[in-house]
Amino acid sequence: MGTTRSTIGTRRTVRKTTRLAAALTAGALSLALTACGGDDDGDSGGSGGQGGGDPQTGSAVTLPRLDGESLEVAAVWTGAEQENFKKVLEEFEERTGAEVTFVPAQDPIINFLGSKIAGGAPPDVVMLPQPGAVRQAVDKGWAKPLGAEALKELGENYSQGWQDIGAVDGTRYGVYYKAANKSLIWYNAQVFENAGVSEPKTWDELLRTARTVYDSGVTPFSVGGADGWTLTDWFENVYLSQAGPEKYDQLARHEIKWTDPSVTKALTTLAEIWGKEDYVAGGASGALQTEFPASVTQTFTGGAQPKAGMVYEGDFVQVNIAETEAKVGEDAKAFPFPAVGSTAPVVSGGDAAVILEDSKAAQALATWLASPDAATIQARLGGYLSPNRNVDPSAYPNDVQRGIAEALVAAGDDFRFDMSDQAPQAFGGTPGKGEWKALQDFLKNPEDVEGTQRQLETDAAAAYGN
After folding, report:
1. Which of 351, 341, 136, 163 is nearest to 247 (CA)?
2. Are residues 194 and 293 in the same domain?
3. Are 24 and 163 contained in the same domain?
4. Which of 94, 151, 89 minimizes the C-alpha distance to 124?
5. Which among 398, 417, 436 is the end of a domain?
6. Using alpha carbons only, what angle is made at residue 319 by residues 92 and 355, rounded to the nearest 5 degrees?
């Protein structure tokens, strides 16, 4: 969530971003279709079918025997996301004989790792959710470079862009095992049907849709404001579409200040939703007490009278929808984040596996996580998106997820990574501080655009050191 950190799209042109938006929008438009099992012939995406069959057999990745070896893997994942990842680790255990323990981590993860390292008990591998955190781990001397086998697997399965965002100063440290399309708005299909509205394609259409949903008796939006990262994602989508990719890259590197007029415009636009108390479930105070999982489940619980009709967040929302009785593609559908400017935004995110304790076993795990075999296991479980281009699209359990995955792979290197994830963690990834806190305060008082900008700039200057 630096001017020296690894980023993708630093000098990308508007033309390339437009092409990416078109590709991802085309994939996301299929979200309106009912999820089904058809068209799974495997001819539409995988190369060589490494991930197309049963992930328990027919492996293409070579792993050493590690009988008697033990490993710890740390990540901030909880709930179904954690349980599904543990199944991937279990298969690694079966193939190598190693014993792997999952260690629940807390945000900010760099602070968590610092305490573990100070106590002499660092995990062997950590899943870092920000490129900024990867650089911090390298700068602190914690991260270890990927070995030859992991690099080989990475080179065979990932586009250059996804390889590069796991690198620092040309050395590769991270395997981006998990990706996210963070430019989707999910909606309760029954609410939309009852209100007589269709999927909006522009911001103005979204505002009209929200008004119609409100008039039908349902609060338009659910916002997980207790988790500040959801608010940064809202801002990034509005800003990328409205200000454009070049400004986005400049703000991500703090080459322009948060007091810039482009930020003023984006916050003012956000206030068109956040500033309408009746448009947010529970109002601002309620949203600030709502954690992300609850923001999803309350949108798809209660049939045609849920607490809200829409919720913004990435493809991983499906994991939380699965906790309700709603079916993705039928009761729960999604549309691309509407265009605020001339082009719809496309923001991506992800989690990188980084080795802290260099060993044969840790390098083998990084190699495993870079393989289509590992990604295919979790893809079949749903609520997961891999940037691995050799995962057969048929591994994804429904048309919704399949379309998002195919669009991500088709985009290649043309994507914008989550802005806050590129920032120093003190600014873009710490609960109660920096951007998270400033946007929570803005949600509480959307009229204070100028004050919010001043606070954002003060916090950013301190974190970036400029």
Report:
1. 341
2. yes
3. yes
4. 89
5. 417
6. 35
Q: Read out DSSP for 380-404?
A: HHSS-B---TTS-GGGSSSHHHHHH
Does a cis peptide bond (omega within 30 degrees of 0) precede residue 397? no
The pLDDT assigned to 433 comes to 96
- 457 CB neighbour count, 10 Å cutoff: 17
Asked if 295 contacts 2 with a C-beta cutoff of 8 angstroms, the reply is no
* 126 shares a domain with 64: yes
Q: What is the extent of the structural domain holding 233?
A: 184-336
* CA-wise closest residue to 324 among 304, 298, 295: 298
**Could you tell me the CATH number of the domain that includes residue 162?**
3.40.190.10
Same domain, 240 and 295: yes
| Contact (CB, 8 A) for 296 and 186 | yes
Closest to 176 measured CA to CA, from 417, 337, 359 = 417
On whether the CB atoms of residues 410 and 97 are closer than 8 A, the answer is no
Total tally of structural domains belonging to the chain: 2
- Residue 65 belongs to some domain of the structure: yes
Any domain includes 382: yes
More confident residue, 408 or 276: 276
**Is residue 461 situated within a structural domain?**
no
Residue-wise pLDDT for 402-452, tens only, equals: 988 887 888 777 678 899 989 988 999 899 999 999 999 999 999 999 999
Which of 168, 92, 163, 90 lies closest to 132, judged by CA?
168
pLDDT at res. 404: 85
Q: Are 356 and 254 part of one and the same domain? A: no
Average pLDDT taken over every residue of the chain? 87
Q: Please say whether the beta carbons of 318 and 383 come within 8 A.
A: yes
Are 387 and 271 in a shared domain? no
Q: Is residue 194 part of a domain?
A: yes
Residue type, 440: Q
Q: Structure pTM?
A: 0.74
- Is 357 in a helix, a strand, or coil? coil
Identify the CA nearest to 203 among candidates 400, 317, 296, 335.
335
Render pLDDT for 306-334 as a digit per residue (tens, 0 to 9): 999 999 999 989 889 989 999 998 999 99
- Please tell me whether residues 237 and 197 are part of one structural domain: yes
